[in-house]
Structure formats: C-alpha cells, structure tokens
Amino acid sequence: MAIERTFSIVKPDAVAKNVIGAIYSRFEAAGLKIVASKMVHLSKEQAEGFYAEHKERPFFPALVEFMTSGPIMVQVLEGENAVLANREIMGATNPAEAARGTLRSDFADSIDANAVHGSDALASAEREIAYFFTADEICPRTR
Ligand code: RTP
Ligand code: MG
Q1: Complex-level ipTM
Q2: CATH of 3-137, one of 3.30.70.141, 3.20.20.60, 2.40.70.10, 3.10.20.590
C-alpha cells in the first residue's frame, strides 16, 4: 500500500462546536498521522480560490459565505491510502446520507455545515496542500 498525503479541513461549524480534538482523534484512531496543522480564518478571496472548481454551481455563494463565517483548522494527513481513508472517515457530503460512525454522521448538521473537508484525489490533495502550506511547514513522520 502506498503512503499518501491528503488535505483536510475542520470546517467553521465543527470548530464552533469545539470538536477539533474529537475529529483529530478519529484520524489518529484510523492510523492517519497529522504532519501539518494550523488555524486560519479564510478571506472571501481565499475561500473562492480554494473552491474554484465549484464556481459555477448554485451552492457556491453559500459555500464561500459558510467557509468564511469563522476559523477553521487545516491539516495534512499522512498514511496508507490517506486520500481514500480520510474520505471513508468523513462519510457522505450530505450528513443525512453519511454512514453511522463517520465524522459527518456524528458532527455535521447539514450539507452546507458538514464539519469536514477532505481531498477527493491525489492530484487535488497536492494542489490543496500547496494552497495552505509551504514545504517547510510539513513535518514528515517516520514513526
Ligand atoms: P468537500 O469538498 O468539502 O470535502 O466535500 P465533498 O467533496 O464531499 O463535496 P463537494 O462536491 O466537493 O462540495 C463541496 C462542498 O460544497 C457544499 N455542497 N453543497 N447544497 C448542495 O447541493 C451542495 N453540494 C455541495 C458542501 O458543503 C460540500 O462539502
Ligand atoms: Mg470536494
């Protein structure tokens, strides 16, 4: 199995609920290691740039509004098949459809306020990591 890195966000709703640690614990329990982490409050421009692929979608303005509504945690997760592993931990985009025991089932309120983001492929993981972190802010974990 390949050791990968993926990009993750604890969204404003989950930060407001004070469940950053609970969410980080799920990553750790699944064997994913946090190799970079920081809290940021996105500007409108930063949020629009991050979600540029959704620019033409009807939910884009609401998404940008929500993602700028409060601070978020951004982190890089490292581990075996990290991209897919993190998507499994997160659950479906709509919490009403998310499997029991997933982050969105347990912590999300709606399709908009859905607690977490995770890269959907290796290529997007690379792009998203670079959007938030310089190379020297990422600390490889050998154990
Ligand atoms: P994310 O990018 O945040 O990890 O979520 P995702 O891959 O599961 O979903 P994606 O299709 O990339 O959509 C990004 C975020 O936009 C909001 N969304 N709202 N109202 C809607 O139909 C709708 N669809 C998507 C969600 O907050 C989703 O996480
Ligand atoms: Mg997505």
Answers
A1: 0.92
A2: 3.30.70.141
